[in-house]
From TrEMBL, chain A:
It comes from the Eukaryota. One of its GO terms (molecular function) is phosphatidylinositol binding. This is Sorting nexin 1. It holds the Pfam family Vps5. SMART domains: PX. One of its GO terms (cellular component) is endosome. SUPFAM superfamilies: BAR/IMD domain-like (SSF103657), PX domain (SSF64268). Residues 318-363 form a coiled coil. It comes from Olea europaea subsp. europaea. Residues 24-143 form the PX domain.
UniProtKB/TrEMBL annotation, chain B:
It is a peripheral membrane protein. It comes from Olea europaea subsp. europaea. Its main location: cytoplasm. Residues 34-50, 61-73 have a biased composition (Polar residues). This is Sorting nexin 2B-like.
Length: 409, 553
C-alpha cells in the first residue's frame, strides 16, 4: 500500500508521480448488462469502467467485463481480509429470477452492483485492497482463475454463521469445553449495540416489505385505470352527443394516468424500495462482522486460557528440572506471541467497528434522506399529474348543459 | 333489492391495521351521525355506515377558503403521537357546486323532487321497524311473525288531502303495490321493487336484514315518488295514506286461479254455444294473459307467437317497429356498457382502497422505526434520520386516510351507474308490456280471420242447399255475433297497444334527458373529487419533498 495515500480522509494525499496537485479519485461504473450464454448456463455480464488517478492503477481509465460471481468473489475476499469493517452488501443471489432475467431485475441488480463497487472504492481502507485492483483491472481469464481458486478455505458456510449468531444472541457459556467461563464480551455498550442492530433489521425488513407492496399497488391501480378508461370510452360512444364526448375524454385521461402510475411504480421500486432493501442488506453485513468479532474474542480468550495452563505446566517442569523444559519454554513463547496476535486482531476489530458504526449511521441518514426525497417527489408529481388530468376535463363538462334543470340556477 | 345480486363488497374490513393505527398513533374522532334515513344500501358500491356519516361542506375550497378548510399536513399534525385535529377527520366533498343536487341525486331523488325546482314535491321516509304477530290462518302453533315499517309521507300534491301522513306497512303490501302499478301502468318505466330475499331473510342476522330492507324500501318508494306519472297514481296514494289492510283486488291465490281457469275452459272450447262469453271479455283484453283464468288465452297467444316467429303471418303493425327495434338495440348496448363501467369502477375503488391500506401500513412501519431510532439514538445522524422518517410516516398515514375518504366519495358518485342498471330492468319490463300487447292484438286479428273464414265456408255450403240450411244459418248468425264481439275486443287491444307505445315513447324521452343530466352530475362530481383529493395528496408530499430537499443530488 502506498504510504502516501494512507490517510484519514480520502482526498488529501499527493503522489509524487501525479503531474498535477489533483486530489486522488477512484470512481467506477457498472453498465451495459448483456445476456451471455444459453439456457441454464446463461448469465449477465456487465461492463465495469474504472476512472482513477491512483498510481497503482497505471492509467486513467480501464474497462473490464465482469459477472455477478466476480462481485461475490471480491466481497468474500474483502470480508476475509478486512475484519471489523462493514463490507458493503451485494444484491441477493437469486436462483429463480435469474432464469427469467426481466429487464427490471437486471436493472435493479446493475444498480446494486454499481453502488457496491463505488462504496468499496470510496472507503479509505477498502480502496487500497489488492483484490479490488485485481477485480477492476484484470482480464476475464485471470478473473476466472482467481474465482476458481476460491474453494472452501475462505468460504464461510451459512451453517457456521448460524452457529455464530446463536452464540452471539444467547449467553450460554462454553460447556462443551467443560469451562464455566463465558465466551461473550461483557461489554454493556456493545450489548446495546448488538441488540440495536438485530432489532433494526426487523424494523427495516417490515418497512421494506410494505414498500415493495406499495410498488405492486401502483401497478395494480395503473391497470385498473386503464381498464376503467376503456370501458368509459365505450360508454361514451354509446351515449353520443356532448356527454358522450365527455365520457370519451374521461376515458382517455384515465388511460393516460394509467401510464403515469406504471412509471411511478418503477421509480418507486428503484429509488425507494431498493434503497430500503440495501439498508437491510447493510445491517445483515454488520451482523456478519459482529460474528467475526465474536470469533476473534473467543480465540483470544481460548488462547489466554491455554497460556495460563501452559504457565502452570512450565512451572511444574521447572521444579522437576525436566528435559522437556526447553521445548515447553519454546512452546510457551510461541503461545504468548500467538496470544498477542489474537489480542491485536480482536482489538483492531473493536476499534474499526466503532469507527464504522459512526460512519454507517451517517451514511444511512444520507442514503435514506435521498430515498425519502425521491419517494416524496415521486408521489407529489404523481398526485399533481392526476389532479391536472381530472381538472382539465372540467371545462368540457361545464359546457354541457342540463336538460331538466340547471342546478346552478 | 333490485332483483339482482348484491355482491356485498366488504368495506367494513377495510383496514386490518386500522385498529393498530388508531391505538399506536391516531385517535380518530368518530364521524358524526347523519340524518338517519339517508343511508346507503348494500349494493356493491355501498360503503359501511361509518363513511356515509361524514358530512359534506358547502363551500368550494377552490373559490373561497372556509374556516373548516383542511389545513396542510405540517401545521395540523404536530406530533405523530397526538390525535389529528377534527378538521382533518372531516373531509370535504369537492363537488360543492352541485352539492344540493348531487346529494339528492345520489340518494335517488331526482331533480324534480327538489322544492326549489318544481312546485310539487313528495318525500317518503321509512322507519321504525316493528315485529308483529301473524293473526289468523297460521299453521304454526304460537304464530309466526312479520315486520311492519312506519311510512311517513310529506307532500304538497293536491291529490293528497293533507301535508303529512303516517301508515304502517309490511313488505307484502309493497309487493301488492308493485303488482298493482305494473298492471295499471303498462309501458311505463316502473322502478323495480326490492327483492323478497327469502334466503337472505333466513341467513342474515335479523336486525341487519331488517335494516337492509328498510333502506331498500325507502329507496324504492323514493323512486316512485319521483316518477312524474307514478307519483300521482291512485295506487301509491292509497299505499301511503290509507291505514289498514291493502285492498287486494285482482291478485287471488294461485289455487283458485287455476280452478277458475279450468272451469271456464270447456265453455271456451265449445265456443259457439249460446254463451256469448266464449269470446274474450273486452275488459280482460287490456291485460296480458296470465294466471289460471286465462289458460285458453295463453294457449292461443302462444300459438300465435309461434306462428309469428315462423313468419306465417306478418304482424299487422309494422311502421314504427324498425325505429323501435333500433332503439331497443341501442338500449341493450347501453345497458352492456353501463354494466362494464360499473364493474370497472368497482375494481377501481378496490384498488384505491388497497393502495390506501398499504400506504397506511408503510406509514405505520416508519412510525415504529422512528420511535425505535429516537429511543436508541447515540449519534446525531440517527436523530436526524428519525426526524426525516417521522415526516415521511406522517405523510404516508395522511395519504392513507385521504385515499379512504376519496373512495367513500367515489362510491357515492359511481353508485348512479348501478342505479341505472336497475332502470334498464324497468325499461325491459316496459318493452315486454309492449310486446305482449302486440301479441294480444295479433292473436285477436288472427282469430277474427279464422272466424270469418269459417263464416265463408258455412255460407258457401249453405248456399248450395235450396231454401237454406236452418242449422247452418243459425250457426252463421252466432258466428257473426262472435265476430262483432271479437272485433270490439280487437279494437280495444289496439287502443291499448297504441297507449303502451305512447308511454314507451314518452318514457324513453324522459329517460334520455334524465340519464344525460344524472350522468353529467356524476361525472362532474367524480372528476372534481378525484382532482381535489389528488391536490391534497400533492400538498402533503410536497411538504416532505421540501423538508428532505437538502438530500437532493
Amino acid at each position: 500500500m502506498n504510504a502516501l495515500q494512507r490517510s484519514g480522509s480520502d482526498s488529501m494525499a499527493q503522489s509524487p508521480r501525479s503531474p498535477t496537485s489533483q486530489a486522488p479519485y477512484l470512481t467506477v461504473s457498472v453498465t451495459d448488462p448483456a445476456k451471455m450464454g444459453n439456457g441454464v448456463q446463461a448469465y449477465i455480464s456487465y461492463k465495469v469502467i474504472t476512472k482513477t488517478n491512483f498510481p497503482e492503477y497505471q492509467g486513467p481509465e480501464k474497462i473490464v467485463i465482469r459477472r455477478y460471481s466476480d462481485f461475490v468473489w471480491l466481497r468474500d475476499r474483502l470480508f476475509e481480509k478486512y475484519k471489523g469493517i462493514f463490507i458493503p452488501p451485494l444484491p441477493e443471489k437469486s436462483t429463480v429470477e435469474k432464469f427469467r432475467f426481466s429487464a427490471e431485475f437486471i436493472e435493479m441488480r446493475r444498480q446494486a452492483l454499481d453502488v457496491f463497487v463505488n462504496r468499496v472504492a470510496s472507503h479509505h481502507e477498502l480502496q487500497q485492497s489488492e483484490d479490488l485492483r485485481t477485480f477492476l483491472l484484470e482480464d476475464e481469464q485471470t478473473m476466472e482463475r482467481e474465482r476458481s481458486q476460491e474453494t472452501g478455505i475462505f468460504k464461510k458456510k451459512p451453517a457456521d454463521f448460524m452457529q455464530i449468531f446463536k452464540d452471539v444472541q444467547s449467553k450460554v457459556s462454553d460447556v462443551v469445553l467443560g469451562k464455566e467461563k463465558p465466551v461473550e464480551e461483557s461489554n454493556p455498550e456493545y450489548e446495546k449495540q448488538k441488540n440495536y442492530i438485530f432489532q433494526l433489521e426487523d424494523h427495516l425488513a417490515e418497512a421494506q416489505k410494505h414498500a415493495y407492496r406499495l410498488v405492486k399497488r401502483h401497478r395494480e391501480l395503473g391497470q385498473s385505470l386503464s381498464d376503467f378508461g376503456k370501458a368509459v370510452k365505450l360508454l361514451g360512444t354509446c351515449e353520443g352527443n356532448s356527454l358522450g364526448k365527455a365520457f370519451s375524454e374521461l376515458g382517455a385521461k384515465s388511460e393516460m394516468l394509467s401510464i403515469k402510475l406504471q412509471r411511478e411504480a418503477h421509480h418507486l421500486l428503484m429509488s425507494f424500495e431498493e434503497p430500503l432493501k440495501d439498508y437491510v442488506r447493510a445491517v445483515q453485513s454488520i451482523k456478519a462482522t459482529i460474528a467475526e468479532r465474536a470469533i476473534a474474542f473467543r480465540n483470544h480468550c481460548e488462547l489466554a486460557e491455554t497460556i495460563k495452563f501452559k504457565e502452570i505446566d512450565l512451572n511444574k517442569l521447572r521444579l522437576t528440572r525436566s528435559e522437556k523444559l526447553a521445548d515447553a519454554e519454546r512452546e510457551y513463547e510461541q503461545l504468548k506471541a500467538d496470544g498477542k496476535e489474537s489480542k491485536r486482531k480482536f482489538e483492531t476489530i473493536v476499534k474499526l467497528m466503532n469507527q464504522e458504526i459512526a460512519r454507517f449511521q451517517e451514511q444511512k441518514t444520507i442514503d435514506m434522506g435521498v430515498a425519502f426525497h425521491e419517494f416524496a417527489k415521486g408521489q407529489a408529481n404523481l398526485a399533481k399529474s392526476i389532479a391536472e388530468a381530472w381538472r382539465s376535463l372540467l371545462p368540457k363538462l361545464e359546457a354541457c348543459s342540463f336538460f331538466v334543470q340547471n342546478p346552478d340556477a | 333489492m333490485m332483483g339482482y345480486e348484491n355482491q356485498g363488497y366488504e368495506e367494513a374490513h377495510l383496514y386490518a391495521s386500522k385498529e393498530e393505527m388508531a391505538s399506536l398513533v391516531l385517535n380518530e374522532d368518530p364521524s358524526p351521525p347523519s340524518n338517519g334515513s339517508k343511508s346507503f344500501t348494500h349494493d356493491p358500491f355501498s360503503s359501511s355506515p361509518q363513511f356515509v356519516e361524514i358530512p359534506t361542506e358547502d363551500t368550494d375550497p377552490l373559490q373561497s377558503p372556509s374556516p373548516n378548510q383542511v389545513l396542510p399536513s405540517h401545521s395540523s399534525i404536530n406530533s405523530i403521537l397526538e390525535p389529528p385535529s377534527y378538521a382533518d377527520a372531516i373531509f370535504q366533498s369537492f363537488d360543492s357546486d352541485y352539492v344540493d343536487s348531487a346529494e339528492v341525486v345520489s340518494q335517488d331523488q331526482s331533480l324534480s323532487a327538489l322544492p326549489s325546482f318544481s312546485s310539487d314535491y313528495i318525500k317518503i321516509c321509512v322507519s321504525d321497524p316493528q315485529k308483529e304477530q301473524e293473526q289468523s290462518g297460521s299453521l304454526v302453533p304460537g304464530g309466526s311473525y312479520y315486520f311492519t315499517y312506519l311510512i311517513t309521507t310529506f307532500t304538497n300534491l293536491p291529490e293528497f288531502s293533507g301535508a303529512e301522513f303516517n301508515v304502517r306497512r309490511r313488505f307484502r303490501d309493497v309487493v301488492t303495490l308493485s303488482d298493482r302499478i305494473s298492471e295499471s301502468y303498462r309501458g311505463y318505466f316502473i322502478p323495480i321493487r326490492p327483492d323478497k330475499s327469502v334466503v337472505e331473510s333466513q341467513v342474515m342476522q335479523q336486525n341487519e336484514f331488517v335494516e337492509q330492507r328498510r333502506i331498500a324500501l325507502e329507496k324504492y318508494l323514493g323512486r316512485l315518488a319521483v316518477h312524474p306519472v307514478l307519483k300521482r297514481s291512485e295506487e301509491l296514494r292509497v299505499f301511503l295514506t290509507v291505514s289498514g289492510k291493502m285492498p287486494l283486488a285482482r291478485t287471488t291465490d294461485v289455487a283458485s286461479r287455476m280452478l277458475d281457469g279450468a272451469v271456464r275452459l270447456p265453455k271456451q272450447l265449445f265456443g259457439g254455444e249460446s254463451v256469448v262469453g266464449g269470446a274474450a271479455e273486452v275488459s280482460e283484453v287490456v291485460q296480458p294473459a296470465k294466471g289460471g283464468m286465462d289458460l285458453l288465452r295463453i294457449f292461443r297467444e302462444l300459438k300465435q307467437s309461434v306462428v309469428n316467429d315462423w313468419g306465417a303471418t306478418k304482424p299487422p303493425v309494422i311502421e314504427e317497429d324498425k325505429e323501435f327495434l333500433e332503439k331497443k338495440e341501442k338500449l341493450q348496448d347501453l345497458e352492456q356498457q353501463i354494466s362494464n363501467v360499473s364493474q370497472q369502477a368497482e375494481s377501481l375503488v378496490k384498488n384505491h382502497h388497497d393502495m390506501g391500506e398499504t400506504m397506511g401500513q408503510l406509514g405505520l412501519a416508519f412510525v415504529k422505526l422512528t420511535k425505535f431510532e429516537s429511543e436508541e439514538a447515540i449519534y446525531d445522524s440517527q436523530r436526524a434520520r428519525a426526524a426525516d422518517m417521522k415526516n415521511v410516516a406522517t405523510a404516508a398515514v395522511k395519504a392513507s386516510r385521504l385515499y379512504r375518504e376519496l373512495n367513500a366519495q367515489t362510491v357515492k358518485h359511481l353508485e348512479k351507474l348501478h342505479e341505472y342498471l336497475g332502470v334498464m330492468l324497468a325499461v325491459n319490463n316496459a318493452f315486454s308490456d309492449r310486446t305482449s300487447a302486440l301479441l294480444t292484438v295479433q292473436t285477436l286479428i288472427s282469430e277474427l280471420s279464422s272466424l270469418n273464414s269459417r263464416i265463408e265456408k258455412l255460407e258457401a255450403a249453405s248456399s248450395k242447399i235450396f231454401g237454406g240450411d236452418r242449422s247452418r244459418i243459425r250457426k252463421i248468425e252466432e258466428l257473426r255475433e262472435t265476430v262483432r264481439v271479437t272485433e270490439e275486443a280487437k279494437n280495444c287491444a289496439v287502443r291499448e297497444y297504441e297507449r303502451i307505445k305512447e308511454n314507451n315513447k314518452n318514457e324513453l324521452e324522459r329517460l334520455d334527458k334524465e340519464r344525460h343530466d344524472d350522468f353529467l352530475i356524476m361525472l362532474k362530481g367524480f372528476v372534481v373529487n378525484q382532482a381535489g383529493y389528488a391536490e391534497k395528496m400533492a400538498n402533503t408530499w410536497e411538504t416532505v419533498a421540501e423538508e428532505t430537499s437538502g438530500y437532493a443530488k
